[in-house]
């Protein structure tokens, strides 16, 4: 089967390689055509030709605005478009309507591993959109990574993608901020980082597999006096003061402290730290 990939950044190139390895012929188009060099795919001269070459077109672009730049004016009737670019759930829903108005089926998705891991063990991606469309495309999509279908709402895959990256990006900023904090005191990053990464891997030990935490958050019940919002909030304030004293960007610890302050002000001081959820979601 011929598959089209539009967008040849690191991710689109990795997808193209995975699809070729899976035995498909692949037609590609990219704004900067040189990025197709050496891939072994067929470079289409225009987006119109690229979409026309296959029933299934996969987009791997910086955002959804790029999709409109590329596909405006391109005949889509009868095609299936799978957009694996990052954007908001709202942008996905709007795109789904835009594509449907042009007579094509649409799936949205988010690839949850870095480009070099695409097509390998542990790779997976979230998808949403009409189930029948997903089931038709799945045998191709599974070459990118395991497929996790979330439901018909085209915004769901982006919601899950963004929520996972919320965890990821916040953790990455935390690691860099903490490293800057010790570096400001003359400690080499190499002395600090292995231990800091251990702290990250301690989190699952603290919250388990998430089931108990999920039940607490659902119920709005935050028992326990080992890690209260008051105690953790005091530490959050110490981190902020340490950062300010060291001249290290205080934005991140200030945001964290604000969660504790608001939880305490709302009467959750003697509850478990999970009570922050109550002020975050309101
Ligand atoms: P890049 O930013 O490297 O590539 C984006 C692609 O979009 C390029 O092909 C670029 O074309 C094209 N593009 C951007 N804007 C336009 C436009 N206005 N018109 C035409 N083409 C445009 O991104 P990646 O390949 O790294 O990622 C692609 C998507 O996958 C992103 O949404 C990213 O969030 C997601 N993703 C990436 C991961 C990774 O490891 N890289 C991991 C998980 C998800 P040109 O080459 O001409 O600039």
Q: TL;DR?
A:
Helices cover 52% and strands 13% of the residues. It has 282 residues and is an alpha/beta fold. NADPH dihydro-nicotinamide-adenine-dinucleotide phosphate is lined by residues 7-12, 30-32, 35, 60-62, 66, 69-70, 85-86, 111, 114-115.
Keywords:
single chain; alpha/beta; Rossmann fold; N-(1-d-carboxylethyl)-l-norvaline Dehydrogenase, domain 2; 8 strands
Task: Please give a structural write-up.
By secondary structure, this protein is α/β, with parallel strands linked by helices. The protein is built from 11 helices and 8 strands. The chain has an 8-stranded mixed beta sheet, with helices on both faces. It is elongated, with a radius of gyration of 23 Å. 35% of the residues are buried. NADPH dihydro-nicotinamide-adenine-dinucleotide phosphate is lined by residues 7-12, 30-32, 35, 60-62, 66, 69-70, 85-86, 111, 114-115. Belongs to the HIBADH-related family. Residues 3-147 form the 6-phosphogluconate dehydrogenase NADP-binding domain. Keywords: Oxidoreductase. This is 6-phosphogluconate dehydrogenase.
């Amino acid at each position: 089967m011929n598959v089209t990939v539009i967008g040849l950044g690191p991710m689109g190139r990795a997808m193209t390689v995975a699809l070729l390895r899976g035995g498909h012929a692949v037609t590609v188009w990219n704004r900067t055509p040189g990025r197709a060099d050496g891939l072994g795919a067929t470079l289409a001269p225009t987006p119109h030709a690229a979409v026309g070459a296959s029933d299934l077109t996969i987009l791997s672009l910086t955002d959804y605005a790029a999709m409109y730049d590329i596909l405006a004016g391109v005949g889509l009737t009868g095609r299936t478009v799978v957009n694996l670019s990052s954007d908001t759930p709202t942008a996905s829903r709007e795109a789904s309507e835009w594509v449907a108005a042009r007579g094509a089926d649409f799936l949205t998705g988010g690839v949850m591993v870095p480009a070099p891991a695409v097509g390998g063990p542990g790779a997976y991606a979230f998808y949403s959109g009409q189930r029948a469309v997903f089931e038709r495309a799945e045998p191709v999509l599974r070459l990118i990574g395991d497929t996790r279908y979330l439901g018909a709402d085209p915004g769901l895959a982006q919601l899950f993608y963004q929520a996972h990256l919320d965890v990821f990006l916040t953790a990455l900023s935390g690691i860099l901020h903490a490293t800057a904090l010790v570096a400001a005191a003359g400690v080499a990053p190499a002395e600090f980082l292995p231990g800091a990464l251990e702290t990250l891997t301690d989190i699952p030990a603290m919250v388990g597999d998430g089931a108990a935490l999920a039940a607490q958050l659902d119920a709005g019940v935050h028992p326990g006096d080992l890690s209260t919002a008051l105690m953790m909030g005091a530490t959050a304030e110490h981190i902020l003061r340490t950062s300010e004293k060291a001249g290290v960007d205080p934005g991140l610890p200030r945001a964290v402290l604000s969660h504790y302050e608001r939880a305490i002000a709302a009467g959750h001081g003697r509850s478990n730290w999970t009570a922050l959820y109550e002020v975050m979601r309101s």
